[in-house]
């Protein structure tokens, strides 16, 4: 949220120089406030677990947020009751005429499929294009980040031989970027993926910038200059046990997964994981809601402008 300070206060110039949003009394008296409208396109098989993780992060602000859960097709998910989907999810066609302050597109366990082989890829492309016209800022998580880069810019991910799994050290590259407001210069975040796009590939796209990255995990947060597209290649929403559950699942399936890095004390899976990413995960979502949605979206969503078309 912005701070309201007296006009001409010396601190105002310092704060503006650090790209911190301040508001004088005249502007504050004319502010209109309404609930934010946020859609979640949930592509994960365990819908309920992902809902809880994301809603927990979205709830950590004083802003009122109306959330629509969106499904990409009518196929019964493996790990979620059909009754849950019917009760709480909107078909995309039911919200296609609506405009949103924000949209979150989750990851999906589709690492080894070419995008064109994904059964809902045509619908996915439709939604990606729809978001350019109907959403102020879209956050793409993990697989969705790579899928959006491929659709909009033709950049193809590479697949790692081994899964990148663990909690990795990251560094802030643009300390004055609002999305990273309050971040420590070095912070931690979980990753769980095979796909990889080099930082240089993101930065080669006009209007995109890698703003946080890891020596081991690569680009983590990438944002467009207007902050209407935010790509997050990891999983800031993960619960403390999520990587452990994935590791146990793969073991039970007869695979030989690597132990998630920097996660168990002494790399011993019998020990409870060390949790050191949740504060920055919460801060990332709070900053996105504030600086990419609340401060930028028109009060009347019908006045939302179309995003500049990405250029390949």
UniProtKB/TrEMBL annotation:
Pathway: Amino-acid biosynthesis; L-methionine biosynthesis via de novo pathway; O-succinyl-L-homoserine from L-homoserine: step 1/1
Keywords: Acyltransferase, Amino-acid biosynthesis, Cytoplasm, Methionine biosynthesis, Transferase
Catalyzed reactions: L-homoserine + succinyl-CoA = O-succinyl-L-homoserine + CoA
GO molecular function, one term: homoserine O-acetyltransferase activity
Predominant place of localization: cytoplasm
Location relative to the cell: Cytoplasm
Highest taxon listed in the record's lineage: Bacteria
Residues the record marks as active site: 142, 235, 237
UniProt xrefs under Pfam families: HTS
One GO cellular component, as annotated: cytoplasm
HAMAP family, sorted: MetA_acyltransf (MF_00295)
Protein family according to the UniProt entry: Belongs to the MetA family.
Name the UniProt record assigns to this protein: Homoserine O-succinyltransferase
């Amino acid at each position: 949220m912005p701070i309201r300070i007296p006009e001409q206060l010396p601190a105002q110039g310092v704060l503006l120089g650090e790209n911190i949003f301040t508001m004088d009394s005249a502007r504050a008296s004319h502010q209109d406030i309404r609930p934010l409208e946020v859609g979640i396109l949930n592509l994960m098989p365990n819908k309920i677990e992902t809902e809880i993780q994301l809603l927990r992060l979205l709830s950590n602000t004083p802003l009122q947020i109306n959330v629509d859960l969106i499904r990409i097709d009518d196929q019964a998910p493996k790990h979620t009751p059909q009754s849950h989907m019917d009760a709480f999810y909107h078909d995309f066609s039911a919200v296609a005429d609506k405009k949103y302050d924000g949209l979150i597109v989750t990851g999906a366990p589709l690492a080894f499929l070419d995008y064109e082989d994904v059964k809902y890829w045509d619908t996915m492309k439709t939604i990606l294009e729809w978001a350019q016209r109907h959403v102020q800022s879209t956050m793409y998580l993990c697989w969705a980040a790579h899928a959006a880069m491929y659709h909009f810019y033709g950049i193809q991910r590479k697949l790692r031989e081994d899964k990148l799994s663990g909690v990795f050290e990251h560094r802030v590259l643009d300390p004055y970027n609002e999305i990273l407001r309050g971040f420590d210069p070095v912070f931690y975040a979980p990753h769980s993926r095979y796909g990889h796009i080099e930082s240089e590939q993101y930065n080669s796209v006009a209007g995109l910038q890698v703003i946080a990255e890891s020596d081991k995990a690569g680009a983590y947060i990438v944002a467009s200059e207007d902050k209407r597209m935010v790509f997050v290649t990891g999983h800031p929403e993960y619960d403390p046990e999520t990587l452990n559950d994935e590791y146990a699942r793969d073991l039970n399936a007869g695979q030989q997964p690597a132990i998630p890095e920097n996660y168990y004390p002494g790399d011993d899976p019998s020990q409870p994981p060390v949790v050191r990413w949740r504060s920055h995960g919460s801060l990332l979502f709070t900053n996105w809601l504030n600086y990419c949605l609340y401060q930028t979206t028109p009060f009347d969503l019908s006045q939302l402008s179309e995003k500049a078309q990405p250029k390949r």
